[in-house]
Amino acid sequence: MTELHTPYFLVDEERLVRNLEILKDVAQRSGAKILLAQKAFSMFACYPLLAQYLSGSTASGLYEARLGREHFPGEVHVFSPAYREDEFEALLEYADHFVFNSPRQLEKYALRAREAGKQVGLRVNPECSTQEGHAIYDPCAPGSRLGTTLANFNPDQLPLLDGLHFHTLCEQNSDDLETTLDAFEAKFGPYLKGLKWLNLGGGHHITRADYDRKRLIRLVRRVKDRYGVEVYLEPGEAVVLNAGFLVTSVLDTLHNGMDIAILDTSAACHMPDVLEMPYRPPLQNSGQPGEKPYTYRLGGPTCLAGDIIGDYSFDNPLHEGDRLIFEDMALYTMVKTNTFNGMPLPAIVWRDKDGNQRVVRQFGYEDFKGRLS
Ligand SMILES: *Cc1c(COP(=O)(O)O)cnc(C)c1O
After folding, report:
1. Which atom of ligand 1 is closest in space to residue 236's alpha carbon?
2. pLDDT of residue 1
3. pTM (2 d.p.)
């Protein structure tokens, strides 16, 4: 890995295919259709590979829908909290399934979508929180704008609908899906009969080692048997879990009450979830602070005092030019990078199953300047 210019994202075909095989197996055993949620990972260079294993892609709006249509053979689904009038016609060119967030949006757009031959769905809110600690990832939190609650659901609109959708999970196992599905069925089950499909959203950590896939398969089959509908899953994270890295170099080391290293990658610009979620990303050949003899605080090269990736310990002192490899960096990274402080964007590198590395994309000054005027 030493010949390439850092920082760069490295996506590994072998690890990606391992995930894709698991997902394909789940789809085959359960009868569910599985889509890539592009929000988490939009490296379109590998969409043709993903399409060999998945049924299509899902989008959060016009641009993702277009990217999916242009590069990902298969179905294109879209959900938006509120569609824009000035984009809707264009969206009809790209998406097959339209999921709306509210009765008003349904009223405004559903007939137009149907007349264009599209499938129409409504996102519902089963009002069943199953996650602790991450309120910003909980669409069932009080006051949520995401999904129609039973109180706001208008059964008179059923003739407009082909399906229902809920998305309530984040990095969760299938026991939480079961809890949510029970709550969904208690509220909306009667309305699902007669429709064509149910979309169970994303947040299913299907490819994680401890994920209970048997239960997921049983739940999907239960829905299909009970209601006679197709079932969709639209994971983002699970598709690329542990399939990517962020390779970075040490630019400088200093000491201020503790050892500090400045890297050529930034939490704020290249892995903003580290600050937003927040979490401490795994780093190869490192330990918890104090676990190995040399502990460093790793930070980025921006002016933001809080541009800190975390504290890690090492077997040996760090030196200028040392390479560090952050793990699990394919998801919610490339799609969220920014050029704050004029930071360059990391290159995107593909490692095929024979170990050959290819730079798929490099970025430069124009990518910084092009967003400004
Ligand atoms: C974010 C999102 C997903 C994907 O979620 P992951 O946690 O990446 O699996 C799927 N569907 C919807 C509607 C989403 O908002």
Report:
1. 8
2. 47
3. 0.97
